[in-house]
Amino acid sequence: MSTILEAKNINKYFRDPVLFHALKNISFDITKGEFVSIMGKSGCGKSTLLYILSTMDTDYDGELYIDGELTSGKTNDELAFIRNKHIGFVFQFHYLLPEFTVLENVMLPAKKLGEKSIEEIEYDAIEKLKLLHIDDQALKLASRISGGQKQRVSIARALINSPSIIMGDEPTGNLDSKNAENVFNIFQELSHQQNLSLLIVTHDEEFANKTDRIITMEDGHII
Amino acid sequence: MNSFRIILGISKIHLISRIKQTSIAALGVTFGISAFIILMGFMNGLNGLLDGLILNRTPHIHVYNDIKPSENQPIAYFKDVSETFNVVHSVKPKQTQKKIHNAQPLINYLNQTPKVKGAIPQVSAQGFYISGNQQLNGMITGINALAEANLFNFDNYITEGSVIDLNNNINGILLGIGVAKKMSLRIGDRVQIANIKGEIIPLKIVGFFQSGLAEIDNTQSYVNVKTAQRILAESESYITDINVKLHNIEDAVAMSKFIANEFGLTAIDIKTANAQFETGTSVRNLISYAVSITLLLVAGFGIYNILNMMIYEKMNDIAILKATGFSGNDVKRIFISQAVIIGIVGGVLGLIIGYLVSRLIDNIPFETEAIPNITTYPVVYNYIHYIIAMLFAMISTFIAGYLPAQKAKNIDPVEIIRGQ
């Protein structure tokens, strides 16, 4: 089993308003196809950890490897490329670009990556939308679809560049139980059928219990 | 290249989805640019007109034989008293002739000098216009009419008749409009000229001219060089003035000094003669630039404001773009390109509107006594103004966009995403 993501001795301090040791010596790894959830109370540092793992937060000590590549200390442009190619994001709030159509939203990261022609990207995007059963909404503006649909679109967007890992920050937190169930099933399918790694921060115990592994955090430690 | 297209695509959608704000920002630029074009065109037109009023009809160098006292009085040549303080009373002008000695060879020499566009002779004579028992003071200048028209736009001031009529009629006279009115003369009439010696020469009126300066129009008239020589009863070599036009007006000072030194004549260059004129031109230019730049600065602030607001509205979009792999520089380029697109669209529109309004002004009737050949307001269409305007539109919008874009670049996506 190859390791997709590896964290070594990650420490994070918040200096404002007072010095606060938010993450203390976090080390763990995620292998290919593993579906991992991070749980913990509010303020335990689980979101902070996720944003460090996502490479968006670079202000930390320690080492982070994604796909075997050390990301610590890389420039912002290099990190943007890594996020683009290797990481897919799903947030609690759907975060689509409201003035763009669903299809354009899904295509955008692939266009940025620029490895395929526009036609290929469009084909891929429609495939991903089909996978999530919202291809009928493809040409609607992103601001015109329901919350559950938006979340599925953002999953499709996360998948478009065939990333190594999908990260989610409470992706079901804002959804009713039926939609939450739906999203979980989609994640599980991706994990099992496409051998995709997933790392999901959640409050939802029911959700977490169904994942392969639960990382529980408390006061900046992994328990 | 590819990423540039995506960025432009995103900018386009941002701009179109906020078409109201976008068009207000672009209209700000349009307003500034068109005002610049109109102002510069109009101001330069007026400048040209005023320059034309003086500069075009004024020789760059006027050469004549001035009547003045000797610079060194005889006492200065006595060595015995050179150390003393000498006072000479009642100094009289040096006895000299009014004509320029050896004028024709000098004209030929000047005409062969590369810097000189043309040098033409004039003969100025004093006389009286006689009408019944009235005598009017007159200045009669003998000119080479065709060359005058060619070099000094003499024909612009002829209201009736033409330079050719004068050139073809050895007994013709081109009368100042003021003189003609006083004496109720028409073309074809005869006017009698009395010279200082009292001899009367009848001449035929071939036309009228109007300089716009009443003083001149009331006394001046033009005849052919030979006619003037005849009025003065002088030979054909009698030339009192030489007017020189240069290719480049900037050479006037040096050239006039050279002529004065080399030939012992008085040579007045146009800059000395009309020094106040150039100052007026440059001040007017300065004013038009200052006003236009102020307008463009205001437009620039408009763009800055709108982009700043846009960035606050687009915080989420910026966070998403960064999370999905767009770098800070990509985000920066998105906002700069929006500013530049606003600049280009607003600028081009401004050029078009500026041009159309200039055209409109160009067709408004404007008639003035001073300049008989002008019928509408003068407007200059100088492509350099259009280039400057466009460059300024691009640069000012770029700067106005750069600061907010830099802000967008530095937005931390984590803060936005977690802040919700």
Uncertain ranges of chain B: none
The tally of helices of chain B reads 15
Q: What is the CATH first-level class name of chain A?
A: Alpha Beta
Largest Cβ-defined interface: A-B, 31 and 27 residues
Class from secondary-structure proportions of chain A: alpha/beta
Q: What is the helix/strand order of chain B?
A: HHEHEEHEHEHEEHEHEHEHHHHHH
CATH homologous superfamily caption of chain A: P-loop containing nucleotide triphosphate hydrolases
Mean pLDDT level of chain B? 84
How are the elements arranged and paired?
The complex is a heterodimer of chains A (223) and B (420).
Chain A: E1 3-14, E2 20-31, E3 35-40, H1 46-53, E4 61-66, E5 69-70, H2 76-86, E6 87-90, H3 102-113, H4 118-131, H5 147-159, E7 165-169, H6 177-193, E8 197-201, H7 205-209, E9 213-218, E10 221-222
Parallel strand pairs in A: 3-8, 3-9, 6-7, 7-8
Antiparallel strand pairs in A: 1-2, 1-4, 4-5, 9-10
Helix pairs in contact in A: 3-4, 3-5, 4-5
Chain B: H1 2-17, H2 19-56, E1 61-64, H3 103-112, E2 116-131, E3 134-143, H4 145-152, E4 158-160, H5 163-168, E5 172-176, H6 177-183, E6 190-194, E7 200-209, H7 214-217, E8 220-224, H8 225-232, E9 241-246, H9 252-263, E10 266-269, H10 270-273, H11 275-313, H12 315-323, H13 328-362, H14 383-409, H15 413-419
Parallel strand pairs in B: 3-8, 5-7
Antiparallel strand pairs in B: 1-9, 1-10, 2-3, 2-6, 2-9, 4-7, 5-8, 6-7
Helix pairs in contact in B: 1-13, 2-11, 2-13, 2-14, 11-13, 11-14, 12-15, 13-14
